[in-house]
Amino acid sequence: MVMNSESAMDQETLEQQQREKILNPASRTGVTQELSENVILTTVDDIYNWSRLSSLWPMMYGTACCFIEFAALIGSRFDFDRFGLLPRSSPRQADLIITAGTITMKMAPALVRLYEEMPSPKYVMAMGACTITGGMFSVDSPTAVRGVDKLIPVDAYIPGCPPRPEAIVDAIVKLRKKISNDSIQERATSIEQTHRYYSTTHNMKLVSPIHDGTYLNQETRQAPPKELAQAMGAEVPPALETSQTQQEEA
Q: Which of 52, 71, 159, 248 is the most exposed place for a label (fewest CB within 10 A)?
């Protein structure tokens, strides 16, 4: 009888523990003797890539209207912090740069310098049509760079004018998949950029401006037209009235 009562108590205690485990699955875990709960088998590549894809730090970089969408992504509505993305203001602490906005030839050297100051491995996203192909400035602008990939290597392209924050989230997910497949042995050769195209310097000829501002000093611009001055009851200078009369007759 004693053994039966003890076994019944053990059975009741076990059922109580299982019931508590089901009701409170987030309880504090304890040390068990099961091998599967105490030993984790992985590779160096997997744990290294997992740590990198879960802590991408983008640099706060924006040159045009696409940065408004990037700023919306940082806000509480989209909350890209859940991906481990932490915006940084220094290229020394960032490993991701999202070129949000038009890149001009004056900004190109600064962008290349910021990219080279970022520690490796580093990644680039071209956000918006202006950074991918020049966008609306690709036809008649003498200063817009026709594609940021002419300056720095691009890992992901985000088309749109401007792209929505959801598109940036989709690009982040794809970039995380790319990082998860990286290998430490192959990284030494993959991060080296094998080509770079710089936009050629334009040898433009200086032409004297057509609008030199002398028309602002004309007598006809120093006072309102005669009809408007008469309606306002203002006096029109005789010389100005004569010149306006001559223009009307001509």
A: 248
Tell me which residue range forms the domain holding 150.
57-182
Is the separation of the CB atoms in 84 and 54 below 8 Å? Answer: yes
Task: Specify if 193 maps to a domain.
Answer: no
Of 194, 179, 183, the closest CA to residue 95 belongs to 179
Residue 197 to residues 109, 146, 206: CA-CA distances in angstroms?
12, 11, 27
Express each pLDDT in 49-86 by its tens digit.
Answer: 888 888 888 888 888 888 888 888 888 888 888 888 88
Rounded-to-5 percentages of helix, strand, coil across the chain? 50, 10, 45
Helix/strand/coil for 147: coil
Residue 42 covered by a domain: no
The enclosing H or E element of 123 equals: strand 123-127
β-strand 58-59 against 96-100: which pairing, if any? Answer: parallel
